[in-house]
Amino acid sequence: MRKSEREVVSFEEKAEILMRCKSMTLALQEEDGPYLVPLNFGAEKQGENLVLYFHCAVEGKKLALLRKNANVGFCAYTMFRVFNKGVAPCGYTTDYESVSGKGTAEIVTDEKERMHGLKVLMAHYTEGKFSDEMFSAKALAITTVVKITVREWTGKRLVRETV
């Protein structure tokens, strides 16, 4: 990382940044270049690994691309403020936190793990607790859960004191 003073190294701090982000962008590979799509997600630590979960329909472009190449990239960020620290326009800057990385995606077929993944996703957006029975069988029948085991990821932050 070019600006090492902005790098976030610890797993825990990177995870905290990730959980402050409300969405992430998933990067998949098409034949003629990358395909990017914003997603809702959930995240958790499994052993020494970060694992991400997202859900989608049972067919579509994301799944077709994942079946061809399970290697994915991701990025999530949050911006705190934009401000002018000097002479406009070149003096404008942004305070932010971000994480990005690469991993291997797999379509989850085990029902117990599917439910777990959906609960991890829900926990990112609500404090509510959900039993398996609370999930609609009709909705589950048309929902695919994808798990990404992260191989590498970085965190970056620039947050300055407010005046």
Descriptive account of the structure:
The chain has helices at 11-20, 61-68, 111-125, 137-141; strands spanning 7-8, 24-30, 33-39, 42-46, 49-56, 71-84, 92-108, 144-158. The protein is α+β, with helices and mostly antiparallel strands. The chain has one domain (4-157): Roll (Pnp Oxidase, Chain A), CATH 2.30.110.10. Strands 1, 2, 3, 4, 5, 6, 7 and 8 form an eight-stranded antiparallel beta sheet that branches. Strand 4 (42-46) and strand 5 (49-56) form a beta hairpin.
Distance between the termini: 28 Å
**Percentage beta strand:** over 45%
User: Please, what is the CATH homologous superfamily?
Assistant: Electron Transport, Fmn-binding Protein, Chain A
CATH topology: Pnp Oxidase, Chain A
Could you say which overall geometry the principal axes of the C-alpha atoms support? globular
- CATH secondary-structure class: Mainly Beta
Helix share of residues? 10-25%
- The H-and-E topology, N to C, reads as EHEEEEHEEHHE
Report the count of strand segments. Answer: 8
Provide the domain count: 1
Q: Helical element count?
A: 4
Give me the Rg, rounded.
18 Å
CATH A-level architecture: Roll
Give short descriptive properties of this protein:
23% helix; 4 helices; Pnp Oxidase, Chain A; 8 strands; alpha+beta; eight-stranded antiparallel β-sheet; 163 residues
Which helices and strands appear, and what pairs or packs with what?
Elements (H helix, E strand, L loop, with lengths): L6 E2 L2 H10 L3 E7 L2 E7 L2 E5 L2 E8 L4 H8 L2 E14 L7 E17 L2 H15 L11 H5 L2 E15 L5
Antiparallel strand pairs: 1-8, 2-3, 2-6, 4-5, 5-8, 6-7, 7-8
